[in-house]
Write a sequence for this structure.
């Protein structure tokens, strides 16, 4: 009896953590809003040497990719070009253009060659856990994409290194310039919202201000152009989830996707159990998540997730 | 130099505890955008109080979760959101991310009492039932049973919704 309860609690524990787990992109997005975000970044003494090293790495990776054949479509890597060039209209990206806090120079688009892009992510790969008494597997299946909706671009403007009032004024001025640039890029008044203003006094009397701005970019406007305009106007960081697919999947589309995800989950559970020298037995639980957006190599994608648990024999 | 060292220590603190704080906040019936905002604010407040914290010797995650909890309460007050048992589920707004983020999970969590949600959040943050008991004034067995009831209720609500 107590053993059954322990098993149930273990299963609930895993399930709860799985549904609440933040993605690496989310963790990084929060980190970059904090004043210590840049403190541990490696800073090469010779910038051109760093650029050469990056080119070498990218070239090497490309060469290796060609040698090994076509990359997996689940984990393909997308690299956004620097500001000023055309970026994909969709896809999950995080761009950090800001200088280290307290290091002076204002950010500009031209001084922002580094771009980090999240690949795959969002648990698009099926997952499976095998434990003593059972096996739990999660399968995913995509829903057909419908008409694209607006893209949400989150921006932040930061200032620090002075008195609270000076830092506050500095951040407000920068934020106003960014908002003006967004509207000049074609966004309406209602599309630009200041979502937060944070002012803190940290150790050693350092004041720090962080202003967050949310921009809803209509489908007719390229989000990368909006981001470039904001960065040029002084935004320290920008993140875009790309254009989110519409949300009007029919019941039959959802049903088909759930069936496919369930089959994938069962297949994974069976495969892992077989590899471990046991077999799946009775179905214990089936949990279907409602449609959600994940960020795959082709940009945002709507998927359904189904988690199944089997006992073992 | 001292400021840089403090900043480095604090970056490590975020690396160790950021995901736990985010899981806790996501469990508090917030939209995931709000959870991100409050996570950032949690660490900013912690940063501002870093010197005072170091003198107290409290486990760092407990300290961060207390700050996060106070922010959740403040946030609910500002919005005049009911936070008692049976509160209405949050309404859906028009932004694309919110539409996505306000899932059945969020609504299921909103049905829990504040106390039950707190226990779910502390567990999601990675605390042992013994620690949860200490933080919520229960025995570890009572904390475990309260969490079990709440987690089952959340999962049942999501399964019911999914048909």
């Amino acid at each position: 009896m107590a053993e059954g309860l322990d098993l149930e609690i273990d299963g609930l524990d895993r399930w709860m953590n799985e549904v609440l787990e933040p993605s690496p992109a989310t963790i990084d997005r929060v980190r970059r809003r904090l004043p210590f975000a840049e403190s541990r970044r490696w800073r090469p003494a010779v910038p051109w040497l760093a650029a050469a090293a990056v080119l070498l790495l990218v070239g090497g990776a490309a060469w290796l990719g060609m040698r090994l054949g076509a990359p997996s479509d689940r984990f393909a890597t997308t690299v956004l070009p620097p500001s000023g060039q055309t970026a994909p209209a969709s896809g999950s990206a995080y761009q950090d253009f800001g200088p280290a806090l307290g290091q002076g120079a204002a950010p500009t688009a031209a001084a922002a060659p580094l771009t980090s892009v999240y690949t795959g992510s969002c648990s698009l790969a099926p997952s499976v856990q095998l434990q003593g008494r059972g096996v739990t597997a999660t399968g995913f299946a995509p829903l057909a994409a419908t008409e694209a909706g607006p893209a949400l671009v989150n921006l932040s403007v930061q200032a620090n290194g002075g008195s609270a009032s000076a830092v506050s004024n500095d951040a407000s001025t920068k934020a106003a310039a960014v908002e003006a640039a967004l509207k000049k890029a074609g966004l309406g008044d209602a599309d630009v919202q200041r979502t937060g203003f944070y002012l803190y006094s940290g150790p050693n009397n350092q004041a720090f201000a962080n202003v967050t701005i949310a921009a809803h970019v209509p489908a007719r406007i390229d989000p990368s152009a909006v981001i470039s305009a904001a960065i040029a106007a002084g935004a320290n960081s920008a993140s875009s989830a790309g254009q989110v697919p519409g949300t009007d999947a029919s019941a039959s589309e959802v049903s088909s996707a759930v069936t496919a995800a369930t089959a994938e989950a069962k297949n994974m559970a069976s495969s892992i159990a077989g590899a471990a020298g046991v077999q799946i037995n009775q179905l214990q639980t089936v949990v279907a998540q409602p449609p959600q957006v994940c960020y795959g190599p082709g940009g945002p994608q709507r998927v359904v997730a189904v988690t199944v648990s089997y006992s073992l024999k | 130099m001292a400021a840089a060292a403090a900043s480095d220590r604090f970056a490590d603190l975020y690396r160790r505890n950021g995901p736990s704080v985010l899981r806790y906040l996501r469990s508090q019936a917030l939209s995931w955008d709000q959870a991100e905002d409050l996570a950032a604010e949690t660490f900013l407040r912690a940063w501002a109080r870093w010197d005072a914290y170091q003198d107290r010797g409290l486990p760092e995650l407990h300290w961060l979760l207390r700050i996060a909890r106070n922010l959740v309460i403040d946030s609910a007050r500002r919005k005049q959101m009911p936070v008692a048992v049976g509160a209405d589920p949050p309404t859906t707004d028009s932004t694309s991310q919110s539409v996505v983020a306000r899932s059945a999970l969020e609504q299921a969590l909103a049905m829990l009492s504040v106390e039950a949600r707190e226990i779910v959040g502390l567990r999601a943050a990675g605390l042992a039932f013994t620690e949860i008991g200490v933080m919520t004034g229960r025995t570890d067995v009572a904390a475990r049973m309260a969490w079990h009831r709440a987690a089952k209720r959340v999962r049942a609500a999501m399964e019911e919704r999914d048909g």
In short: Residues 38-124 of chain A have pLDDT under 50 and may be disordered. The first strand of chain A starts at residue 93 and ends at 96. The radius of gyration of chain A is 23 Å.
